[in-house]
Amino acid sequence: MITGNIKDAKRYYSVNENFESAFKFLEKLDIDSTGEFEFEGFRGCISEMETSDLTKEGKEKTILEAHRKYLDIHFVIDGSEGIGYANIDTLKAETEYNEEEDYLLLTGRKDKIILQPGEFCVVFPEDAHTPGMCGIDNKLKKAVVKIKL
Q1: Euclidean distance between CA atoms 105 and 95, whole angstroms
Q2: Domain-by-domain residue ranges, the chain?
Q3: pTM (2 decimals)?
Q4: Looking at domain 2-148, which of 2.60.120.370, 3.40.605.10, 2.40.10.10, 3.30.565.10 is its CATH number?
Q5: Which of 76, 113, 117, 125 is the one with CA 20 to 30 A from 140?
Q6: Is there a contact between 45 and 36 (Cβ–Cβ < 8 Å)?
Q7: Nearest alpha-carbon partner for 125 in 145, 142, 107, 148
Q8: What tens digit of pLDDT does each residue of 87-143 get?
Q9: What gap in Å lies between CA 72 and CA 82, rounded to an integer?
Q10: Do the beta carbons of residue 118 and residue 76 sit within 8 Å?
Q11: CA-based diameter of the chain, in Å?
């Protein structure tokens, strides 16, 4: 996992051939836009949500997801977002891998980070994650960029 602020994103351009164009897209993002987007090498969506509806703190079993074909960049535009994460090797699979939709659901102990506006995290296939956990406030606007590996 990589976490950082968008103003420092150029440090990570060499990690993946599509990082430069994806991060430049996020840097110039119209904060009023919503919906899906697709460019050569990456796709994703911009959405607004109430994180109180997505809070996963109270569940006995926290479900985390992991991908094999894509990595995700979660970027907070407004509000804050808690993201739970753990290495897949420390978790128990709850489902078989869904190749068509590229996800595997897992359970187990997780750590948590809080992202503020302008901050991002990159999750790789070994990084199971559970986004949308309640942040400091209950409103969140974020972009998720999916880059094919």
Answers
A1: 5
A2: 2-148
A3: 0.89
A4: 2.60.120.370
A5: 125
A6: yes
A7: 148
A8: 999 999 999 999 999 999 999 999 999 999 999 999 999 999 998 876 556 788 999
A9: 15
A10: yes
A11: 40
79 C-beta neighbours (distance < 10 Å), count: 20
Encoded amino acid at 120, one letter: F
Pick from 13, 26, 15: which is nearest to 119 by CA?
26
3-state secondary structure of 126: coil
How far, in Å, are 5, 24, 44, 85, 121 from residue 140 at the CA level? Answer: 17, 21, 16, 19, 15
Q: State the Cα–Cα distance between residues 66 and 29, nearest whole angstrom.
A: 26
Q: How many residues are listed for the chain in this entry?
A: 149
* Integer CA distances (angstroms), 84 to 23, 112, 130, in order: 22, 4, 5
Is there a contact between 22 and 147 (Cβ–Cβ < 8 Å)? yes
